[in-house]
Specification:
globular; Jelly Rolls; 2 domains; 4-stranded antiparallel sheet; Arc Repressor Mutant, subunit A; 46% helix; 9 helices; alpha+beta; 12 strands
Amino acid sequence: MALHSNDPPDRLDRAEIVADRLMTALRSLPMFRGLSQEDRQRIGRVAVLRDYDRGEFLWRAGEPAAHLTLIVRGQVKIVRHTEAGDVILEIFGVGEPVGAIAVYNGIPYPASAACMEPTTLVLIPRADYFDLLDRHPDFARSIIRELTRLTLALTRKLAEMRGQRVDVRIARLFLTLAERMGRTTDQGIEIPLQLSRQEIAEMVGTTVESAIRVMSRWGREGVLVTGEKRFVVPSRETLEQIAEGRDEPG
C-alpha cells in the first residue's frame, strides 16, 4: 500500500508496530528460544498478541479451548466457581502457558482465567500449536514438563488443603510462590505479586476473615511483610517451620 504524507502516522505504522511487538514477545518466551527465526516468523503469521486489564477474564469455565495461551507480561489466576465460593487453583506468570491441559486434550476450560494485573498474552491457534509439537521435540518436551508440573501441583494442593490449619496452608502457598517467582533482596525473599486477602483465602480454601487474621498476625510478628504489589519473606526458615505444622515463634 502506498504511504502518503497526509496520512496519520499511527495509521501508517500500526500494523508494523503490532508485528514488531509480536516478534519481540515470541523471542522473549523461553519455549520459543530453540526455534529458528523462520519458525518464529511462521508462528508470528498465525499468532495474536493481546493486552488485558487487571480483573479482565481471558475465558470463563465451559468455553472452548481454541488457543495455546502464553504470558508475556503480568499474572493470571485460574478460578473455579463453587456454591461455597471461588477457589483459586493456580497462578501463572511470565513465560508460562495458561490452560494448556484443556487445549492439549481438546476439552472446554474447566475453570475461569482472570488477570491479576495488566497482562499481555500470545495466542496460538490449536492446530498450529499441535504442528509445533510434532515438528519440534524441544518445544514438546517443554510443554510436557509444564503439564506434569501443573498436574503434580494441583494434586499436592488438594492434598494439603485436607485437614490442615489455615496458617499451614497459607505458609505453604507463600513458600510455593517464593520458589516459583521469588528473588533474594536485603530484606528477604521478595515475591513480586499483588494478592488481596480474598484471593489468598480463595487459594487455600478458607474464609477471608481467617486469611485476614493470619496475615495481620504475621505482619505484626514479621513472618510475612505485605508491600505495594509485593510480599517479603524475611526468614524462609520461619515460614517452613509454620508450613510443617510446628508452633509459630512467639
